[in-house]
Amino acid sequence: MAETFDELIALGENADITGWDFGWLEGRATEERPAWGYAARLAERLATATASLDIQTGGGEVLAEAATFPPVAVATESWPPNVAKATALLHPRGVAVVADQDEPPLPFADGAFDLVTSRHPATIHWDEIARVLRPDGVYFAQHVGPASVFELIEFFLGPQPEARRGRHHEDEAAAARAAGLDVTGLSTARLRIEIHDVAAVVYLLRKVIWWVPGFTVDQYRDRLRDLHELIQAEGPFIAHSTRHLIEARKP
């Protein structure tokens, strides 16, 4: 028997949203992955680094996929539940997890790292990235691109024309150069998302809090019901994520 609207809402509200693993969505939503395989390429760079910093590591899940780490390996995270999760996952692997509020300055000395990485950082402070990199050090990251998942965001918030330009890869490359870095690689991807039920929507909007700021089920219950009925009538809700892979070197 299919789950009712209220049952789906309850599932999404009660799901654990700590960490940055989206495994709970299995069977409820799918997302294409970029062809470049960020986690594998990150692991290759970690294997040859001497000191690494992973910014906004979440629960440490992506970083933990690496087989080896450099002699000095550090990760930062701001949200206390994720700090605890990342610590439990990464400390046994020799990676120090530092609680940091994602605001300048980073709590590290100038030139402390030859590799700085991040997957889907919410904020990007290029001057700080450049400062903590050694000469010839590299920033390697996968960023969320412009208008990512805006089909879903605009379903709840209405048209967001000004916000659609945010996170554009060309703007970020220009900001990296302005901070004194040489952009040596830049790739982009647009990827299909299929959302099969409203439980997935509630889970996502609770977890990715900047999509619909201040989201609560009570505030958006009517719109959630509209989306539930749309999925029931027409099938999965289709959205698209955008990503870019950026590599920048400090001269």
What features would you describe in this structure?
This protein is an alpha/beta fold. 34% of the residues lie in helices and 25% in strands. The chain contains eight helices and eight strands; from the N terminus they run αβαββαββαβααβααβ. Helix 1 runs parallel beside helix 7. The longest helix has 18 residues. The chain is globular. The mean pLDDT is 97.
Shape: globular
Total of DSSP H or I helical runs spanning 4+ residues: 8
Average residue-wise pLDDT? 97
Q: Tell me about the biggest sheet? A: 8 strands, mixed
Lateral strand order in the biggest sheet:
1-7-8-6-5-2-3-4
- Ends apart, CA distance between termini: 61 Å
Query: How many β-strand runs?
Result: 8
Estimated share of beta-strand residues: 25-35%
Helix content percent band: 25-40%
Radius of gyration: 19 Å
Structural class: alpha/beta
Unreliable segments of 5+ consecutive residues? none
Order of secondary-structure elements: HEHEEHEEHEHHEHHE
Which keywords apply here?
single chain, 251 residues, alpha/beta, eight-stranded mixed sheet, 8 helices, 25% strand
List the helices and strands and how they pair.
Blueprint: H1 5-14, E1 29-31, H2 38-48, E2 51-54, E3 72-77, H3 80-90, E4 96-99, E5 113-119, H4 126-132, E6 133-144, H5 150-157, H6 169-178, E7 182-195, H7 198-207, H8 217-234, E8 237-249
Helix pairs in contact: 1-7
Short description:
By secondary structure, this protein is of the alpha/beta class.
